[in-house]
Amino acid sequence: MAKGKSLLLGFIAGGIISGAVALLNAPKSGKETRADLKNQAEELKVSFEHVKENGKELSEQIINTSKEGVLLIKELSLDVKDSIESWHATIQPHQKNIQSYLKQIEERLNELENQTTTVETD
Q1: Is the pTM of this model over 0.90?
Q2: Fewer beta carbons within 10 Å, N or C terminal of the chain?
Q3: Hey, what's the torsion of the CAs at 19, 24, 25, 26, to 10 degrees?
Q4: Sorted alphabetically, which Pfam families does this protein's record hold (predicted)?
């Protein structure tokens, strides 16, 4: 919005400066000068309306883009959640098997340890 204000101020300042230059340098009558100033004021008004319309269009585009962004983020988060749940469901049975194998290994190690301590004491 700062750019829009700067542009508007530029148009206003340009209109004022061009009006002053026209008054000081134009070898025209007062009537002609007033007519020229009136035309320049109309052109400035038309330019301001264009800036205003462009600002509204830009504002609408920003609103639409942010709404689309929110929808895309929601869809992406749902997709990620679904993927994680699917991965978790795939891994769950294997996780139980791994825990079972680790328990068996631990039991066998304990048995070996007991056997080695029994052999050493004999």
Answers
A1: no
A2: C
A3: 70
A4: YtxH
